[in-house]
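does this look right to u?? CA2 version
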Amino acid sequence: MKIRFLNGPNLNLLGSREPGIYGAATLADIEAAVRREASELKVEVDFRQSNIEGEIVTWIQDSKGVFDVIVLNAAAYTHTSVAIRDAIAAVKIPTIEIHLSNTSAREEFRHHSLVAPVCIGVISGFGVNSYILGLRAAVTVKAS
Ligand code: CA2
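got this back:
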């Protein structure tokens, strides 16, 4: 089983700023934690980040026939991107939306996700654990 993790804009800055909101872990730390769990679960993981909306769209399109599930932290694009939503709907790969922070407990503009309606579900507010829970959910999705 192959699971693709996609990370959106500014997540490359994790660990260097805003530790109060997003924690102290870097994206590399998160990737390492995901890979440790993936090896326990015996699943293959691809893990990417981009600040460019179109690149994320292309990665979603390229996932067709290659990845079983996408776990997506679209970051700010969660709240703005019709293009990412359309790509998920087009490829029909089961997708799980994840967030480090609890977006519902933050500013009003973070309460609405354009991608959630085309995802299986949303995991939000568990810090690094949102990624681990996303991975476990992905394995469950495939099994069902
Ligand atoms: O909580 C999440 O995972 C978010 O997807 C993070 C996004 C935010 O726009 C979403 O509403 C919720 C922001 C990622 C930016 O990360 C930074 C990390 C360090 C310093 C500044 C930004």
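The first strand starts at residue 2 and ends at 7. idk if thats expected tbh
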